[in-house]
């Protein structure tokens, strides 16, 4: 476990890759939420 934490957060490349992964997850969840709210039934 300490190996993976050191690999992900120990240097700048690992930290930047984790930031990219978390930003991608955030953008995809925002787009899915926006698609869900735009495609909802407007009569409710």
From TrEMBL:
The chain crosses the membrane at residues 12-36. Keywords: Membrane, Transmembrane, Transmembrane helix. InterPro entries: DUF3149. This is DUF3149 domain-containing protein. It comes from Shewanella youngdeokensis. The lineage of its organism: Bacteria, Pseudomonadati, Pseudomonadota, Gammaproteobacteria, Alteromonadales.
